[in-house]
Amino acid sequence: MNEELAATAGVPQVKGEAQEAHPLIKRNLSLLGHVNVQLDVLVGRASVSVERLFSLAKGDVVALDAGMDEPVTIRLDGKVVAKGHLVAVGDQFGVKISEIL
């Protein structure tokens, strides 16, 4: 995602290194620290009819039920674990975590 696209979408740009922060939960992860997990970010949802679903074509837009400034939901294995806001990190999206649940 380029800076112009991020500005158009209203996604803040994040540059440089993240500020040093202390984790909310301190744990000894010596046995599990190397294990990778998959996080999903839910931006919003849309309800469409089957007719609309099958009529979708390249370039169509599906409106989501979330506003541009609303927090996104971060899930681990289907369970909500945090909330955050979308940011642009260079040419990619990122999530700035605002709340750990």
TrEMBL record:
Gene3D superfamilies: SpoA-like. Its main location: membrane. Residues 32-101 form the Flagellar motor switch protein FliN-like C-terminal domain. The keyword Cell membrane applies. Pfam families: FliMN_C (PF01052). It comes from the Bacteria. InterPro entries: FliN-like_C, FliN/MopA/SpaO, FliN_T3SS_HrcQb, SpoA-like_sf. Keywords: Cell membrane, Cell projection, Chemotaxis, Cilium, Flagellar rotation, Flagellum, Membrane. The keyword Cell membrane applies. It is a peripheral membrane protein. It is found in: Cell membrane. Belongs to the FliN/MopA/SpaO family. This is Flagellar motor switch protein FliN. It comes from Dyella halodurans. The lineage of its organism: Bacteria, Pseudomonadati, Pseudomonadota, Gammaproteobacteria, Lysobacterales.
